[in-house]
Amino acid sequence: MTISGLRRLRNENREGSIAELSSLGGLDIDTATLNLGPTTRPTSTSDAPLRTMVDAIDMHKALFPSEVKRLVEEAATNTDRLSAFFSITDLMQHETKMETHAKTCMLLSTCLKAFPGIALFPVDETDVYQPPPGSAWYAKRRDIEDSLLRNLRKYIRFSEHFVRKPPRYEEKVHVELNKFHAFADKFFDLSSKLSNSNERLRLMELVDSYERMKLDRLKKREERAIIRADRAARKLERELLRQKRDAELHAPVEIEIT
To answer: Coiled coil where (predicted)?
Structure first.
């Protein structure tokens, strides 16, 4: 294609583009200015983030039971190893034996093994009370469960490293043992929070049951009032009909005299 042919093709395309813009109202041919209207961005509906949030909650709900069981089992096993390690090892030569820490391990192991029973609900959730949507209980419960999983993973890494490479210096021993007791305190605190959450759920169920009972009682009371009012209206109607018949029966008969 020659240069003149290319120029002709370019001019034709440009004229077509100008005509298209003019038809859309975007180009003012007289003033040679381009007037673009306000750009509209696709607005995402509120259902999209809500759907994502619901999916995340459903995913957590589906994975949490198996994950917490696995982590608790691994953490309890590591705690038993720590207990045996403390029972036969004297890390600090100038202090008493590690019996105190071994006892803490026993208490911690018992606490860890109790988590599935506290944190998990029955498989058949039809018998489990579900708070109304939007209740703050869901968010608080989710925070506790996330904290439990997060601290279980941290504790597993800590305990594995402690048994595999125990600290050799007294200062390091103090630091590591403080971490261990901090983990123990954290798990005892989480156990208490989960128990309180379960108790809160039970109280919410009782309150909801009481409110439903009040509504049912009020509804029945209104139904009885409607029935009584209907009976009174029918009784009044019958009385009015009876009075009308009596009035017609005893009405004087007018005799027309011709």
So the answer is: 215-246
- Per-10-residue mean pLDDT, the chain, length 258: 57 54 46 44 48 56 82 91 77 58 85 85 67 85 92 94 81 83 92 91 89 90 91 90 82 63
3-state secondary structure of 55: helix
CA distance 83 to 253: 115
pTM exceeding 0.70: no
Cα angle 130-112-193, degrees, rounded to a multiple of 5: 45
Q: Where are the alpha helices (DSSP H) in the chain?
A: 3-23, 47-88, 99-119, 136-164, 170-249
Tell the residue number behind the tokens 């125990």, with chain if given: 166
83/87 Cα distance (integer angstroms): 6
CB atoms within 10 A of CB 57: 12
Token pair in block for residue 184:
């123990």
